[in-house]
Amino acid sequence: SPLTQQARRVLFFGWVHEILLELTSHVHGGASHWVLLTLSAAACGGSNLAAMGAVRSRVALIEHTFKDRLGSRTLVVAQIAAAGPQMVTGTMAASIATRACITGSDSGWTRFLQGILASDWYWVTCCVTWILAWASATFIAAWSFSVVSSAAQTPMAARAGSYVHAEAVWARSVIRRSRGVIVFACACCAVMNAVRLGLTVCHMLGLIQDTAMLLIILELNRSVYMFVEFIFLLMIIGYFRPRRPDAWAPALQRSISTASCRTPTPKPTPRSSTWHDKVRELAERNVTVDELLSFYSQLGQGDVMPHYDPHHHTTNDVVRGAIIPLSRLPSGGGAAYASTLPWRTVSTQLPERMVTHDWRNLFLHLVAAVVANALGECEYSRVADTLVRSGVASLRRKLAKMGALHIHYWICAFCVNQHANICGGFGSPPPEGTPDYVRWDANRRDSVSGKLHIACPCHERKFFNDS
Hints:
By secondary structure, the chain is mainly alpha-helical. It is built from 17 helices and 3 strands. The protein is about 65% helix and about 0% strand. Helix 5 packs antiparallel against helix 6 (about 165-205).
């Protein structure tokens, strides 16, 4: 996942920085010493840059969920402002020092950069920029996770001891622990840089004369920093997470059984054979992963939703703009998209898996989640990136190799006949000025253009909840 990749970068730069520092301590003087020292400075900047990138990724995920800006862009600016000069200076100095080491010449640029890196003012500037960057990261992380924590209040209707209550308590525990760890780690990074700044200033003012003692304190400070950063990485990628409640745990089962005893179960209403036939027909509708990928590859091509934008169009947009038009019949009626596929009229294949989703989410994410599930992956971010960047060909080959190309899924957007209910309109509008009206109005408009979706002119008979 992106968070795991960020953690790998932090560990990579951190270990490179430690190795170069160790090598520097064994090479005294000469161009080789400066090559190692400058590369170590660049690796230090890269480690800080990747660590703050991990925090920014977390905040960006929260922003995506809540559709609100919570400071991830500010962290990008802080990253560039703090790490940019250190990495650029270190890389330039390393390249010049390497050239001097190879050619044996000592240019003016070499002496100039050596003077910069040997100057206490250079490290004072680096420490100040990193203190400001980590302080802003501390504030933004605390703010963004507080937004999530306040939104994850335990439902008042959830009875204590029930699975819903246990799930809500677990979610809040995860959020609070993540907030505590990330805020603590960011604050520690700011404090460690402040300690280094204080030591450097004291050395400049002559308050610390013992160079050996100064180096020991700096090493202890750096060791504590590396330890805190390592624990922070373990926490941010999911280690030490509280155990999720088990729906089948004996305590929760007793709670469910007790609730069932207290609440009499109403007798099921007798259903006609026609009703049972329709249920069976609905259950037999499905789409395979291969058919889902074929449908996705049509979007934005020719007349099939030519304005499709994978980064903005929701499942609701795709249903209105592609599924409904493609499932209209020449006779003037309409059918479920799954029923219009070539062999579906005689199929009795029950789907192996059912997808629960929200039509307000991106359609790209729906497709990516299904493909990731077929591939046996726990996350769908890489699949979504592949769909956007290179299309369906590579995913189709991977699925075919695993024998997962023809797994059957039941997805409401494809398996319900949209022409029998929503295709011709958007329902009665709720009272204006209410949240329900805002949602109703958003559902009838294209997420990119803002224009009203085109109503389907088919003659299929409509069935609603009140009919």
